[in-house]
Each structure stands twice: as C-alpha cells, then as structure tokens.
TrEMBL record:
Official protein name in the record: histidine kinase
Taxonomic source organism: Marinagarivorans cellulosilyticus
Domain Histidine kinase span(s) in chain numbering: 253-469
SUPFAM superfamilies assigned to the protein according to its UniProt record, in alphabetical order: ATPase domain of HSP90 chaperone/DNA topoisomerase II/histidine kinase, HAMP domain-like, Homodimeric domain of signal transducing histidine kinase
Listed GO CC annotations: plasma membrane
Entry keyword Glycoprotein: no
GO MF term set: ATP binding; phosphorelay sensor kinase activity
Keywords: ATP-binding, Cell membrane, Kinase, Membrane, Nucleotide-binding, Phosphoprotein, Transferase, Transmembrane, Transmembrane helix, Two-component regulatory system
C-alpha cells in the first residue's frame, strides 16, 4: 500500500510525540518511586535523631556500649520509648484491609525492628541485619564517632496511603498524556495537510509539465524550502516555455533562411528550362553563387549544432596571441580596403601574451568578427583592432564606426539568426549565425565576449581570454 507524504508526516509527528510521552511516563514512574523512597528514608533519619541522642548519653554515662549490649531489654525499651509517640498516633487507626503489613502501625513496627546498633568498625552490637540488604548508616557522636545506627533502606513502597498517592499521580499523568496525544494528533494533521498540500499540487503540475504543458504555475506562499521549490518550479516552467518558443522561432527562421536561396534557384532553373533566361556563364555563375550561400548556411548550422552539444573539436596549444592577431589582420587588409574602409591596429609588438587555444578556432573567431564589421560599417569608416593584457587575462577589442547598435540590443546580437534589421538583404547581412558561433568559440576557451558602443561611433566587441603563464 502506497502512503502519501501527508500521512507519513502525520505518522512521524504522532509517533515521535507518543514515544516521548511513553519515555516520560517510564522516567516519571521510576523517579517518583525512587524519590518517594528517598523521602521515606530521610524521614526515618529524622526520627532516629532522638535515638542517636539517647545513645550518645548512654555512652557518656557507661563509657561504652558494652553494658547496653549485655542488656538487650534496655535496647528494646529504648526503641519503645523513642517510637511510643508513633504507636500512640496509630493506636486508634481502623484497619480496613486484611493485609496487616500494609497498615501504618505495621510499617513503623517493621522499621523499628530493622534498627541495629554497631561499633565504630560497624560490627553488630544489638539488633539483626539481613544479608544482601542496603543499609543507611547514622553516626553516633560524643566528641568523636563512637558507633553507628543502621536501618534497612526501603526498596518498596509498603504503606497503602503511599501507594495510593503514587497511583493517583500516575493516573493524573496518564490523563495529561492522553490529552497531549489528542492535541498532538490534531496539530499533526493540520501541519501535515499544510505541508503536503503544495507538494501534491507540485507533483500534479510536474506531471503536466512533463507532458508539455508549460503554462503551469505554483503559488509561492512563503520563503521556506517549499516556497523556494515552488519558485524554482515556476522559473523552470518559464524557461521551458521560452525554450519551446525559441525552438519554434529557430525552426521557422531556419526554414525561411533555406527557402529563400532555394526559391531563387528554383525560379532561375525554371526560367532556363522555359527559355526565358539564357543558359550562359552569367546565369550559371549566379546559380553557383546562390548554391555557395546555401552551402555556407548549412555549414554554419552544422558547426553551431556541434558547438551546442560540445562535440566541436578543439586542438589547444600554447600560442602567441599577438602573432595570431597580426596574421588575421593581414588577411583582411585587402577586403577592408575594397569595401572603402580603413583598418587600424593597436598591437604592441613587444607584448608576449601566451594563451592556451586552438589557433584555427581563434582565426575563425576573428575572421567572423572582422567580416561582420566589414558588412555593417558604412563606406569611408574605420575598423580598429587592439590588444591589451592584465596579469590574468588578455583583452581583444574590435571597434568600428557608424552605424551603431540600438540601445538594449547589445546582448541580442549573439543570438542565432538575430538581425538588428529584419529587412536587411541576406546578401549583405548573412544568416545571423556568425556571432552565435563566435560566442560558443569564446566560451570553449573559458573566455567572455561582449558588445557595446564604440568611441568611433559604431560597435565595440570586447573578448577576454585567460592567459597561460
């Protein structure tokens, strides 16, 4: 049989309270009984103060207890005198039970008979001691200890009124314990219901979430662990919903990106088949160009998917970042000049910045960024590449002139298929995957990449990479 969380909490709470009450009952039983016996022994010691004083006077008069030991009747008369008041007190007590040992008179008679007199070495002089019984010793003193009085320490509650008193206390405690258990059961039921209710609702909503319903939301009723769990569930539902929407947009954008060049190819090929467009080198070159663009898109998608799942290969080695940057800048000088732009570099040749990286991937990173600047920078503008370093990281900055990025969109440019202008021509703007690939390459090198406004009026891309000392 499956037990739900609420029932488990209730059983745990009630079970704990029950065990605590039982433990308290057992402790009280032993403590009350032992405490009562100790109290009885203390009373007995007080009663023996008279006998101890009388024995001290006898010792002073006789010089020892030997005359008393030779006259046992004096010892008996002495005990009778000491406890005569007790006998008189219970002389008129009515015996209501057949158990003669349970009457007060019998109790005190038994106590008197257990009293013995001993010498300084605790040797028996008068009285009777029983083996294996615990004795309480009371010293008899004059100017020094001259002997001891002993009596048997009580181990059971023998008087009926004492037993009745203890039983009454147990009954009262039993009623209190029963009341505590009832209250604890009710409180446990309330708390178990309060705790288990959001957990049950969370289980139902989690099943719905697993089935694809991301609109589920949990009310956050507090700041405890359950409240934090509900809040985390809401964040998870929002993240899954956003991921689902992003996935839908991703598929739609990919379909759109691939449909456009395929549509152009289809139209051009049909025009050639119908004789509307001549089949010559110019037409073939145009078809080839569209095919290259479609192939580049497919390659970017494949590379981006490999990077997302962590299977994009990296062969890292220790390399000089200054040399790598200068090589990439040299490769792009002709293309920058052809676009009517000026390429500046601010790289100190004396710097020896060593990084642990994949040279091909870093070249791909810098090429994508320079290509992006060439595409989006207005003619006559400037592209500037600079390198600096601290003790722990290298900083690569790529600045370009106008146009700039609208405020609030600096982080979005690294999203796949994102364009600042959706109407921009694919021939000019590309598919919007280059910066997404750049972000993954930088992350694979334990670095960061950010975009912001440039002092040249355009965009500044800042890349940080850890230095290999």
């Amino acid at each position: 049989m499956q037990i739900n969380v609420g029932t488990k909490l209730w059983l745990a709470f009630v079970g704990t309270i029950t065990l605590c009450v039982l433990a308290l009952y057992l402790l009280l039983h032993n403590s009350l009984r032992q405490g009562f016996l100790d109290y009885t022994s203390q009373q007995s010691v007080q009663r023996l103060e008279i006998l101890r004083g009388a024995l001290a006077n006898i010792y002073r008069e006789d010089g020892s207890f030997q005359p008393l030991a030779l006259a046992p009747e004096r010892w008996l008369n002495l005990k009778d005198i000491v406890f005569s008041e007790t006998d008189a007190l219970f002389a008129n007590t009515v015996q209501t039970t057949n158990d003669t040992t349970a009457t007060p008179q019998a109790y005190y008679r038994e106590f008197v008979s257990s009293i013995s007199l001993h010498d300084t070495n605790k040797g028996l002089l008068l009285g009777v001691t029983k083996a294996k019984q615990s004795l309480i010793w009371i010293p008899v003193t004059t100017d020094q200890v001259v002997g001891y009085i002993s009596f048997v320490k009580p181990t059971v509650v023998s008087r009926a009124q004492d037993r009745n008193f203890i039983q009454h206390q147990f009954k009262v405690f039993s009623l209190i314990s029963l009341l505590v258990l009832i209250i604890a059961t009710l409180v446990a039921a309330l708390f178990a219901r309060r705790i288990s209710r959001p957990l049950k609702e969370l289980a139902i909503n989690t099943q719905a979430l697993a089935a694809g319903n991301y609109s589920q939301k949990m009310p956050v009723a507090g700041h405890d662990e359950i409240g934090q769990l509900c809040n985390s569930f809401n964040l998870l539902a929002q993240a899954l919903a956003a991921n689902k929407e992003s996935h839908a947009h991703w598929v739609a954008d990919i379909s759109h990106e691939m449909r456009t060049p395929l549509s152009v190819l289809k139209v051009q090929i049909e025009a050639m088949q119908d004789g509307i467009r001549p089949l010559n080198q110019e037409s073939l070159a145009m078809l080839y160009d569209k095919t290259l663009g479609l192939s580049q898109l497919i390659d970017d998608l494949f590379e981006l998917s490999l990077s997302d799942v962590g299977t994009l290969s990296y062969h890292k080695e220790k390399l000089n970042l200054c040399t790598l940057l200068k090589t990439c800048i040299a490769h792009y000088e002709v293309k920058v000049q052809s676009a009517g732009l000026t390429l500046e570099e601010g790289i100190d040749k004396t710097l020896n910045i060593q990084v642990l990286a994949d040279a091909n991937r870093l070249q791909q990173l810098l090429s994508n960024l320079l290509e992006n600047s060439v595409r989006y920078t207005d003619a006559g503008g400037i592209i500037r590449v600079a390198l600096s370093a601290s003790e722990t990281q290298a900083n690569i900055t790529i600045d370009d002139s106008a146009p700039c990025i609208p405020p609030g969109q600096e982080d979005k440019i690294f999203d796949r298929l994102y364009r600042i202008e959706n109407s921009r021509s694919r021939d000019t703007g590309g598919a919007g995957l280059g910066l997404a690939i750049c972000k993954n390459i930088v992350s694979a090198h334990q670095g960061t990449i950010n975009a912001g406004p440039s002092s040249l009026g355009g965009v500044r891309i800042l890349i940080t990479l850890p230095i290999n000392h």
